Model the fold of this input.
Amino acid sequence: MSNTGPESTVPSAASGSAEPGLPGSAVSKTSKSAREGLPSPRRFGAGLRPAGADAGEGPRAVFAALRNDSTESAEARSEPVTALVFLAGIGAVLLAPAFGRLFDDYDIDALGILVIVVFAGSIYGFFSYWVLGWALSVGIRVLGGEGRARRSRHVLAFAAAPLALSLVAVWPLRLAVYGGDLFRTGGSDSGTGGQVLRWVCVAFAAWSVALLVLGVRTVQRWSWLRALGASLFAVVLTGLVLGVWAVL
Done:
């Protein structure tokens, strides 16, 4: 049975060709995957390490592999990109204040919370992947870089890895300690311990932002300031698009 990911559903605006679907067979875990543009599972795991990890196996190596934007390389990356977009979307919506009072606003149970979070996360992840990815490619081109839309989206997806990681590194602990109080106002998570764990989740989001700047810098071979400028441009442009959309 063939798989499809976000790259197979919408044509690329910059490359002029349809986005590739997911590969029909598993990608080799040997060094061949690095040559084809997909970091090996070991290298991808190393790409989630904080600063100070071995530079040869760290996030720079992951983003450097994205310079290869051939169809074959993009196909090899489509499965991890799809997973990261989906999981990071869930991690992002869980940080929204509105999700901290779902039990206040709606008469639902834990299963209802799960359905809402997964649905909203998938929509948010898909939307951010395409809109923010497009804005990032525009920002890169404005600053004189090679802003291919597909490659910019892939940089964004891999930069979002810490948000996905927070779902297994922090949220199980928060749920085990505070349970449903996480989704109601004034629950037991409103104390110091709960706030500390919430800020840990925020730190994972900040880690993703830092990786986005690093990714642009690595792929484009830019200075930190120039990469930061392109990233900020993407955020501002996305905000303007959302503002216009809200008015209309």
